[in-house]
Batch of 4 targets.
Target 1
Amino acid sequence: MAISNLQETLLMYAKEKSRLNLQFNDIQFNLASATKKTLAAQQQYNNKMSNYYYMYKGNMIFQDEYEDLCYQLEAEYEFNIKNIDSWEEQLQLDKETLELKLNEINANETSFRALLKKNIQSDFSYGGGQGQ
């Protein structure tokens, strides 16, 4: 009976590890997505700044408008980057939490495997000489 309970516990750990690994993969995907969004935001910012520069280049009449647009664009860019950075930090925390949970499960699984091995050895005699 003890052996079947230990085996059931090990199966539960395997299922939990599988679930956590799936979450871990989702987090890894989202981290890659955050990096991609950061690069896209940077590229968009660079393109708009370049366009504004060439649109207003040399035209002193619209210099104040140009500076306002640049200020707005920079504020928007910084806001977007801060949001992405915040999301990325949360993903990193989630990743570390999952790693801790996985390490805990692996340690428990190792303990239960050793206990299962000990129970199997005590329940069955090897070579017909148990107790001699």
Target 2
Amino acid sequence: MHKLVVNYHPSAAVVQSAETDEFLFSRYDLTYPVLPYRLSANVIGGNPTPKDTTPWQTWQREVCEEFHNEAPHGETLRDTTTPFAPLEEIHRIRDAILAGARPYADFHVSNGGISLAEYLGGVGKGLKEAEFVASLPEKKRMELKNTGLVTRAQAELISIFHSVIPQEEIERVKHYLAKGMRLVTEGGSRVLTRNQLVNGIEGEVERNKSYLTAHTTPFVMSNFLGLSHPIMHPERSSAVRLVTPVRASYADYESDPMFDYKPIRK
């Protein structure tokens, strides 16, 4: 029996306006070490810790840690210059996201990694190879030298929730982003429309040298929007939505023979 390999198992949510075709995402900033995904939008969530026992618990914890103005215990803020929106406003958005959430589906994503040739010939077009390699953190330069890949190959299971929030909370997000203020402790936030997700934003990929959406997000959003062709993504990545629902606990995945389940917990 062929098993689905699971190296990572994050939990995240599609956060949607109740009234418009707008969606709220996390956004990687310019410190993110994976260049093809710098400034890219990502579904809101993160990876489990050793203490987490369910995908739901992981996602709730991630949302509560992110929508705050202080780093989680034992961590530090990388961005110490961008001002936060008022904490009560951040918590209004956070509470709306949590209150409107329900399980959606599990997705298994096979990521073969992005080769140097694919990146420089695609979203990174215009970059000089030597300058690009020199700009990488030392760890990423070594990975590139050893594998020929700009991003690591991995197999991932992602548990997705769906949260519908009032349009006033979307407007609240846009208001503070327009004022140059932040709502989350790591990276940033972004609101995108269905049309922007499907058709892209003119000139943005070329300017940023990165994909509009990161990691599993193009596959999750393509499925959610019912698209016949997936949103722009790396060539050697693919995904399938599982017919089984989001499980009640991580133990349920560990005991299921359909998985080779050995996710890294941080």
Target 3
Amino acid sequence: MTQVGNTSEAGQPGKSGASVGADRWRVLPGWAVFVASGVAFWVVGYLPWIVEGMHVEVSSAWPRFDTLKGPVVGLPFGEYAFQALLVGGVIGGAAALAVSRLASPGVRFPRAIASTGAVIALVAALGQTLVTVRPALVDTDEARLLIGALILTSLGSGLLGVVVGAGVARAKGWPWLLGGAMVASLLGPWLVDVIARNPADDPQWLMRIARWHPWVGGIALGVVLAVFGYRPAARLVGWLVALAIAWVLPSALTAMSYVTYYGKQGTLSRDRILEVADAGRDVFVQSLQPSNHHIGPLVLAVVIGIAGATSKLRGATDLPA
């Protein structure tokens, strides 16, 4: 009996032209997904560190190293490296798991393979950094606390990035929305770190580009909202959650930067830790105020999201039965 009906222009039953076009990019065998995801995690996530030269930061925990002549390490390490580790881990995780979308249809569990590649790349970079830094570590409580915090931040940020990337790689539903909102929120700070390494010496045109980084995040968030859609209406709750992430995460980064700077001043003690924690909380709460936020990029995200989701609905309606 002859099959009639859902046959695409490409001649494949049950597949639309868009699906066939997407399948053309799915060519990587499993081993290539593993390798490419590891490379993507480190190169994309820590591109700002690579561009900077990868020399270990000056720190009181390893005072014998000079920032210009110090050894090359795989991860940013130092009192001011916590934000770079967080941003790099999340962006790198998203890049690594995006590679799983290129896996050949015959590859089983491509996201698991990509996640493994990303984790191994993280462990390798962290191991190389520790092997380089540990011999120069001074024997103080402050130095041991710093190295422990850096290790935990590196591992935690990388694992968070893998989880976020897995959601982005699904390209649909709530995992996509939550993961995409996090990536969009961190994309601006990541871009600034890539293109504006030395504000005092960088060309003015480069600094003007860097000032537009909130709008880059707004455009990315708009794409996330458009793919997620607003039908059924309950999905609008997801839009509010995504916008809340985009509102809160930059404030958390601001508080983190303040805590790492303020915490470096003075000796380590219980009272000092509590004082720094209180100051960081105050900065975080203050940063959440509307006067300290860029509202325009969030409005742009909503506009792009509505336009994109509406266009997608119209396209689905116009498809032949």
Target 4
Amino acid sequence: MKYPKFLTKILQSYFRFLAGGVVIVVLVAGYLLLIAPKITELKTSQVTAQQGAVSELKTQQLYADALAKSNTAFATAIPAATQKKIDTFLPSTANFPSLILTVKNMVTQARLTLNSISVSQSGQVAAVSAATPITSGVTSNAAVPKAQAATATGVGVKTQDISISVSGGTTYEAFKSFLSIIESSQQLFDVMTVSFTSGGDTTATTTGGASAGTATWSFVLRTYYLPTN
């Protein structure tokens, strides 16, 4: 097929411009058909994600404001002195130094001598409706004391066991006095086990009376704490 001379001349003279125009048309069409929709999709996704983040931030801010109001209302409704008593009754941490000091003070108040003490984590309770009964040890003439802990309910309540050995009491009254101090403690304690070893035979005193040998008492006390985190 033979093209007219003027058409051939036009093609030869303007071929570069025509080819460039075709390339531009292809590029524009490719951009409009392929790239532009992708860009629009990405922009839409970014806007949606940003809106979601803003919404989540507003929700968290509302929650923080409500929590701050609740804390303020709690602090207003319950006096600081009462809050301190609650924290003492059921601490939020396993404060070993404070716990050991509390037990030591109770022993001193009962005019006994603390021979040994050890603290261990004993586990976690979901609900405690009554204290575990005391099991008496070997040479036992000790009565079972009243259960101090009526309730300690709530998932997450953890326990600590304190094993102590005390001496210095020569009468049953000294034993009951120590139990009474444990019972009246501001921090919650349960007496899990108790046993004693007799200090020996009765000996004569310089005034002509009699003195019983010093007994050694062994206790396992259980206390509780509720972690806040």
